[in-house]
Input
Amino acid sequence: MPVAALSDPHMSDAARHPDRVEKLIAIVFVFALVMFGLAGAAYWQNWNAWTFGGALGAGMFAIGFGLTAWGKYLMPQGPFVEDRHALEGTKEERDSLAAALVERSTVVVKRRKMLGYLFAGGAAVFALVAAFPLIRSLGPLPKNEFETTDWRAGTVLVDSNGRPIRKDTLVPGGIMTVYPRNQLRVQDGQVYFTDDGLATDQTVLIRLPGGAFTTMPGRENWTPDGYVAYSKLCTHLGCPVGLYETELEMLVCPCHQSMFNVRNGAVPQFGPAPRPLPQLALGYNDQGYLIATAPYDQPVGPGFFERTT
Amino acid sequence: MSDTATKTKRSVRESMGPFGPVGKIVDELDERFGVAKGGRIFLDKIFPDHWSFMLGEIALYSFVVLLATGVFLTLFFVPSTNQIIYHGSYAPLRGQRVSEAYASTVNISFSVRGGMLIRQMHHWAADIFTGSIIVHMARIFFTGAFRKPRELNWTIGILMLILAIFEGFIGYSLPDDLISGTGLRIGYSIAESIPFIGSYMVSFLWGGTFPGNIIIPRFFIIHVLIIPLVLLGLISVHLILLVRQKHTQFAGEGRTEHNVVGSPMFPTFMAKTTGFLFMVAAASALLGAFAQINPIWQFGSYDPSKISYAVQPDWYMGWLDGALRIMPSWEFAGVGHTVPLEVFLPAVVFPGLIFTICFIWPAFERRFTGDNELHNLLDRPRDRPKRTAAGAAMLALLFTLFAASSTDVMANFFHVSLNATLWFFRIAVIVVPIIAGLVTYQLCREMQGVHGIGKRKRSVIVRRSAAGEYSTVPAAPRADDERTELDPEPVPARIDIEPLGNGGDREPQSSPTGVRQVTR
Output
């Protein structure tokens, strides 16, 4: 077979003029050197990330480009061939392996059945005992944290700054997120809430125009002065139901667009949420602060297997 | 002493034999470890050339970038949800209550020299990693490279894709910012939706209820140790199997089921692939330098009672988010239990089904076709219309679901109702894959029938005669039209690294015996 001639029309210009390719690669490698120098200087002098990263990237790209061109145009391409030998052995070799496996284990196991059973039993118990702490020690069994919140009859509603809510705190149409005051903590003069308070107890408080109303039968007197409170945890996947359409009186979950009509008991109007948001019964205490008059009557948030209602 | 002093450099060189110090080292190594025979075979290993064989390399090299940048990040990241008051260099956050994980990530971005670049490179490389695995997998599927004897490597590849998705999601969650925290909340609820074991799973993993303070430290160790270790092991097996079973190749001149035709490991492939490693790293660095990704300082530290508009996960989780959005609200409640089917079906059962289909496809196809042969030559996708149609339908399904994860943004952008967008996607998710499958099948069938498919078409000259009559005349064939390929040859002991001539059209010089002149 004749070798490819330089006059071969298939050859690219680059392959036909290797000296030009060599020069180009040399220039590219020098460029890479300069870029790496620049990246070093940028790091040393703490210039911005664009200079540092740009120079580093340009240098690495140049090195990569040069190496690839070197391999592509100045190194043997072949085509070379390599035989692909069958990986499988002969039938005899396979039979010999199978025979050794079968016959030796017959010797080991069949004549010592008792030992085999004892070993298997021991190994199984070991696996079970070893796996148990690995899994069980990770966390507590799910208890009624899934079912309950920190809202009790008489719990005072507070806003994110820890201030209680009075009759005039919200104008009709207003909305805020509230937490149970028993989850309020103060550290170094800064107010914060416990994880449970933020994650589980978060409740959205809305004041609808038109005064007290009834969202559903059996929930009379839950909305003094038009204040209505729902769990802020979406019943779909537990995102905070953070958007409110004032005109439509709808709470919207930004995650998957479930919509809840707040005047009718937050029954889902749209989207994948399966259940209404649980409603918190509201009232006032002696100081005129808005309180929960009862705990939530059902678990808040998304569904889970043990949920009974 | 005088004896050694008289030893000239020349005599030392001569005493080493014709290959100098390298020969000496090879001798010493071979005496101890027996490297000579296997080493030579390794250097001669042939890599077939095709652009699509590069996709797996992108995945491998982005993993290298991930390891390197990831190690840097672990030196500064604090895996803790302890709440502290931020006093760092980013002014808008000063005085705010943030978690240590969040504060340390902001610190990496603004106070650690080079930290911003490395952090963004890490995130971009993660996206490149997952993306290239998916495209690589599609290549393997459409060309039938998963067939016997490579079923195990197909399975390992899917395992690595699943791990990459989990690894990406977990890494995304580590900074404990508002958006990733919301994603984590959704992940918690999805796990919680599994019947019988869901509540136990989340309670064990989170050490109680959401969010707790143990999930970030646990995710950290999973992200930096456990999954990377498993990935490293799987990558090793993937590559060992690849070397042992050798590469697949497309049919062509001199290529059979029983050989491999291409360029040798050393030096050609080694130069090209090392160059490619640098280019993948360069792509990550340039993206990290110029394309902002995940600016967590704008989102704020995670507060479970806060949320932002247009909540979307990283792109490789988009198909699951889309499935969650278009699923009707079918919660099962009865016999004292609740099964949130509106979550469990799209987010647990559906991905399980998709990956099961991927896992069993080689066995399914073998059963379907009764083909139990070993295959080393790749299929052209058009030659296997049913498989190609199935793959196209699957991709269409996943892309439609991905698009469905932005229903709210689309409704705003196109000024249509959210309801219309939702129903559009509910219908599209069934119709689009069917259409894509049928169209692909038909295209493949018709392409098979086209004469000279894949070859360059002869150009045609349109002539107008003096009388105004038009006629067409085929042009003379161009040199490339009928490309003749060289017969492949075994790799000789010496191959000319220097190309022939030094420019111009010099004739090839005569070659010494056993030396192949390589100019193409």
Remarks:
- Helices of chain A lie at 13-16, 18-44, 49-73, 91-109, 113-136, 195-199.
- DSSP finds six helices and 14 strands in chain A.
